[in-house]
């Protein structure tokens, strides 16, 4: 059976997305969000229908990867909520009063947040390391076979970015053999950017995402907003709605762990098909279609077969990261498509062949698209009525798909953030708050190192599009004394 995954949510954005993620997981596994008990399946007419005159007794899901199940069949998320100010986590506690382990909910004693300053979030981690690590260790102790961690955070504020960076360093140090996957939200990079120092926080966080995470699924708020406008029935887009787009991706990516199949049933089996080298680990998600199975206020979708979904996933407007390479071709390093719902084999063969014709892989890969048939939760076939009963919905036959792409298009996002960072640092603008931090009190070397490491990743992604990539002598080590490998 798959190993467990511990979810860490840091800061406002991380916790707000986290609550939508847990809401979706509870829905897919028939768990009450109020207290983690199992829902009464008698309220779902036909869910556990009879077959051969025998009731279907066994469930085909495996919630235990993400939930701790106690003797009374109560499910508690393996989730840790870190924030330096109390507002967001207390909203979550009001919404889900008895779902989370109260010992896993942590806010700072002063309750003052990190003031959108990476350095404050990072230093808070350093000075409270024992308390924070205790919570993580305790959660890990409740796992039989921990596979890894997932961190949900924004890279642009103070807590999710600074404390998040600190936690990434700690996880790599203390749990070196465990996988670390992040869901990282980047700022919109436009006039609506709320905080002027976001580029500093982003570059400092990117350094840790590059060095200490095994895989990062990346979103940017501009793309999330456009997607919400295009797919929802409202033009008044809130974080709750954009967060449901993110939680849909998270639920899709973790589907094979929660509904295990023979081929893909661990984080590592999913990531190994996507990440060829340690640095090239930034994944761009696309999802189609967003129906009310995943988000509130979704526009109606009449039809979506496996064929439709595969081709739609190539639509650049569905990407959750804006790319500046509008008309140009991207070079794909790897692609993984996860389909859920009833698919027709012929449809998929036809769809995949068209799909392959429309994309260009980098020259050194095997140019194949990986496909997982996930199981769609049967609970998603139902909608709650006002009488707290459940009725079957009309979405039953819709196929939905998540594409995770590792491609050179991610360079656009990195370059946008670097260019904003370069403008600020050139003028030494708004640095006072950072200079008070431990890493910056002597000099600004940490900034320069981080910028250089991000540049290294940009260069590596660009080089990966060429034949030179595997032949490049400039790799990471140019030290003549390095041990040479025979042969
Ligand atoms: P401090 O407020 O400094 O303590 O840090 P924090 O990590 O709590 O900050 P926050 O998570 O608010 O990060 C700021 C960035 O995240 C900005 O770019 C916001 O637009 C974005 N953001 C904040 N909340 C959300 C959210 O719920 N969803 C999304 N998608 N973005 C968010």
Automatic annotation (TrEMBL):
GO terms for cellular component: gamma-tubulin complex; microtubule; spindle pole body. InterPro entries: Gamma_tubulin, Tub_FtsZ_C, Tubulin, Tubulin/FtsZ-like_C, Tubulin/FtsZ_2-layer-sand-dom, Tubulin/FtsZ_GTPase_sf, Tubulin_C, Tubulin_CS. It holds the Pfam family Tubulin_C. It comes from the Eukaryota. The keyword Transcription does not apply. One of its GO terms (biological process) is cytoplasmic microtubule organization. The keyword GTP-binding applies. Signal peptide: none annotated. Its main location: cytoplasm. Residues 63-261 form the Tubulin/FtsZ GTPase domain. One of its GO terms (molecular function) is GTP binding. Keywords: Cytoplasm, Cytoskeleton, GTP-binding, Microtubule, Nucleotide-binding. It is found in: Cytoplasm, Cytoskeleton, Microtubule organizing center, Spindle pole body. Tubulin is the major constituent of microtubules, protein filaments consisting of alpha- and beta-tubulin heterodimers. Gamma-tubulin is a key component of the gamma-tubulin ring complex (gTuRC) which mediates microtubule nucleation. The gTuRC regulates the minus-end nucleation of alpha-beta tubulin heterodimers that grow into microtubule protafilaments, a critical step in centrosome duplication and spindle formation. Belongs to the tubulin family. This is Tubulin gamma chain. It comes from Saccharomycopsis crataegensis.
């Amino acid at each position: 059976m798959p190993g467990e995954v511990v979810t860490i949510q840091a800061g406002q954005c991380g916790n707000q997305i986290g609550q939508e993620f847990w809401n979706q997981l509870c829905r897919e596994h028939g768990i009450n969000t109020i207290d983690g008990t199992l829902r009464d399946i008698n309220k779902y007419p036909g869910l556990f229908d009879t077959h051969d005159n025998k009731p279907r007794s066994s469930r085909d899901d495996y919630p235990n990867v993400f939930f701790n199940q106690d003797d009374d069949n109560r499910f508690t998320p393996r989730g840790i909520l870190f924030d330096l100010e109390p507002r967001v986590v207390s909203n979550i506690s009001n919404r889900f009063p008895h779902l989370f382990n109260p010992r896993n909910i942590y806010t700072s004693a002063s309750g003052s947040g990190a003031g959108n300053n990476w350095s404050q979030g990072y230093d808070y981690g350093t000075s409270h390391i024992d308390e924070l690590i205790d919570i993580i260790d305790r959660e890990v102790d409740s796992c039989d076979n921990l596979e890894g961690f997932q961190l949900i955070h924004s890279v642009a504020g103070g807590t999710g970015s600074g404390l998040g960076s600190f936690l990434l360093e700690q996880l790599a140090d203390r749990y070196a053999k465990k996988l670390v996957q992040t869901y990282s939200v980047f700022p919109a990079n436009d006039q609506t950017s709320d905080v002027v120092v976001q580029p500093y926080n982003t570059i400092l966080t990117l350094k840790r995402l590059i060095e200490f995470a095994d895989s990062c699924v990346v979103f940017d708020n501009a793309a999330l907003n456009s997607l919400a406008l295009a797919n929802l029935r409202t033009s008044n887009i809130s974080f709750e709605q954009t967060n449901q787009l993110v939680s849909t991706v998270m639920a899709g990516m973790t589907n094979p762990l929660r509904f295990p199949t023979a081929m893909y049933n661990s984080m590592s089996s999913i990531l190994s098909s996507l990440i060829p080298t340690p640095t090239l680990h930034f994944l761009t998600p696309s999802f189609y279609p967003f129906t009310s199975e995943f988000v509130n206020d979704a526009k109606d979708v009449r039809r979506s077969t496996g064929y439709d979904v595969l081709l739609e996933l190539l639509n650049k407007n569905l990407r959750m990261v804006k790319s500046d390479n509008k008309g140009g071709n991207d070079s794909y390093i790897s692609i993984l498509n996860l389909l859920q719902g009833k698919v027709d084999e012929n449809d998929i063969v036809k769809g995949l062949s068209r799909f392959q014709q429309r994309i260009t892989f980098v020259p050194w890969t095997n140019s194949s698209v990986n496909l997982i048939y996930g199981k769609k939760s049967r609970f998603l076939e139902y909608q709650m009525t006002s009488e707290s009963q459940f009725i079957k919905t009309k979405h039953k036959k819709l196929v939905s798909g998540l594409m995770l792409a590792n491609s050179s298009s991610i360079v656009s996002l990195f370059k946008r953030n670097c260019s904003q960072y370069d403008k600020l640092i050139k003028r030494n603008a708004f640095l006072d708050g950072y200079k008070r931090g431990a890493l910056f009190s002597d000099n600004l070397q940490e900034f320069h190192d981080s910028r250089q490491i991000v540049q290294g990743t940009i260069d590596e992604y660009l080089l990966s599009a060429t034949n030179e990539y595997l032949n490049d002598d400039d790799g990471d080590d140019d030290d003549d004394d390095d041990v040479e490998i025979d042969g």
